[in-house]
C-alpha cells in the first residue's frame, strides 16, 4: 500500500508541471489581443467556406467525388478545419530557436519534450478549441453540414486515430526543428517546407479520394497521410479502420526513435541568438 501511494504521488508530481504549463500558456493567449486572434480564425473560416462551396459546385455539376457522398465530403472538410491543430502539430521548437528562447527550455525542471508538448496544448489547442473549433461545430448545422461521424464506432476509432496522428505530428515536428538547427537557424525555410509538404501530402485540404488512384494509394502510405487523411476518412466511414490504425501505429514506432535521435544529435550544433 505504501509503495502504491508513493507511485501515485510520483505520478502526480510528474503530471503537475505539465498541466501548470498548459494553464499558464492558455491564460497568456486568451489574455492577449483577441482581435488579432480572431483575424487568424476568420482567415481559416474563409478557407473552410471556400472549400465547401467548391465541393457543392462540383457535386451540382455531377463531378466524380471519388466515391464519397457530398455529405461525407463536407463533414470531412469540417472536421479537417476543427481538428487542424491536432492534425498539423506545430510546437514552439522552431520559433523558439529563432527567438533564442529555446535555451531557457533546457533549464526548466521538466524535459524539453514535455515543455514543448505542454506549450503546444496550452498555446494553441485550448484557445483554438474554445474560440474556433467549438463555435464552428455549433454553427455547422446552420451551414447545412453534419458534424456527426458515420457511426458511433467510427467516431470512437477516429478519436483513437486522432491521438496517433497527434503523436506522429509531434515526432515530425521534432524532425523539422532538427532541420532548422542543421540549417543554422534556417527556421523560416524549415517552416515553409513543412507547411508546403503538409498541405500537399496530408489530405487535409484535398481528400485522397479526389486524386488519381495510384497517387492516392501512394500518399496514404506515407507518414503525412497518417496525419490527416487517416482520422478523417475513419470519421466519415470511407476507410477500413484497423489497417489504417495499424499503419499509424507503425509510423509512430518507426519515426519516434528516429526523431529523438536526430533531435538529440542536431541540438549539439544548435546556434541560437537573443532570448
Automatic annotation (TrEMBL):
<protein>
    <submittedName>
        <fullName>ABC-2 family transporter protein</fullName>
    </submittedName>
</protein>
<dbReference type="InterPro" id="IPR010390">
    <property type="entry name" value="ABC-2_transporter-like"/>
</dbReference>
<dbReference type="Pfam" id="PF06182">
    <property type="entry name" value="ABC2_membrane_6"/>
</dbReference>
<feature type="transmembrane region" description="Helical">
    <location>
        <begin position="245"/>
        <end position="263"/>
    </location>
</feature>
<feature type="transmembrane region" description="Helical">
    <location>
        <begin position="156"/>
        <end position="179"/>
    </location>
</feature>
<feature type="transmembrane region" description="Helical">
    <location>
        <begin position="124"/>
        <end position="144"/>
    </location>
</feature>
<keyword id="KW-0812">Transmembrane</keyword>
<feature type="transmembrane region" description="Helical">
    <location>
        <begin position="200"/>
        <end position="225"/>
    </location>
</feature>
<keyword id="KW-0472">Membrane</keyword>
<keyword id="KW-1133">Transmembrane helix</keyword>
